[in-house]
Amino acid sequence: MTTDVHATAATARSTSQRKPEDVLADDVVRVLSPDGTLIGEDPGLTDEEVVLLYRAMLRTRLVDERAVLLQRQGRIGFHIGSLGEEATVLGTAFALRESDWMFPCYREFGGALFRGMPLQRYFDNLFGNANDVAKGRQMPDHWSYRDKRLGSVSSPIGTQMTQAMGVAWAAKLRGDPLVAIVYFGDGATSSNEFHNALNFAGVYRTANVFVCRNNGWAISVPTERQTASDTFAQKGVAYGVPGVRCDGNDVFAVVRATRAAVARAAAGEGPTLIEALTYRLSGHSTSDDPSRYRPEAEVDPWQALDPLRRLRLFLQDRIGWSDADQARIEAEVQEELKRVIDVAEKTSAPPLTSLFDDVYADLPWHLREQQEELALGPRAPKGH
Q1: Which of 89, 95, 181, 257 could cross-link with 246 by S-S, CB 3.0 to 4.6 Å?
Q2: Could you tell me the pTM of the whole model?
């Protein structure tokens, strides 16, 4: 089946010139074939752990689909998803230790939920309501959760890389054994922050794991116009940062590659750059129209490599995963979604006076006056 899938995909092209058969390269870590059979070193997960991973991936996809529907219905303003990239997001999150920090790009909400960010908090952010910790000031999908060591989402390309490196560097100076993982797309490897972060990480041997989600759709320019490097993983070599490539649609391969990188970083051996070869099955965001540049026929070969489909086939063979098991989890997640969306949508907007919060430790007198004036509401002009 593997051969057939890759053979039929031979002519498939994307904006970044990614092809499904790219994962067959000798240097790519692979464990699970598209038909769900083991073809590489088993990461040694228990059946319970595999089910946990599958449930988290399925939950992520169902949340993704619901958020898109909410945006299309005009109930939220924006969503940026991870459809097709769940194995990369959840596999890396699974491989982290509780003490480690995660610095997201913007598609990693599934990893944040897996690490313990409440779903209610996530949807409060999507709606920008009064319970949103950002008080509705950020775009939807710009979350953070310090309690679980999750950095904040920031739209400017690459900024999270230098932040993650800085945290790991500070931790090293303090003797804190944490590891900081950071996510970014293939286009971000052309940003200033990528080069600065990898250079400092290489020099100071910081405990970082840099995860490039090479999803085949750089929002900037095609790969061949962006770099002459054969791979994105090899870009770390100039900075003394070893690179590893793995099949990003294979959650076992992602877990294996990330665990090795985390162990290396925790042992004081320095950072690793992981290039996860995955594929985004949706547009860049809900503001995008992928039909403009991706004919439906070209999606089919990638659908066969869907990470959820692959892991479900494995579970069917390993523990007899059934349609009833699938339906039970889907029903549980849908009920959870209904509950949190209902609460988020019924919660009022943040008060206008909150515009003045979280800017100054001591609010200057002139801004305090403006805040008090705003609290009084609109007043009729003099003479009326």
Answers
A1: 257
A2: 0.89
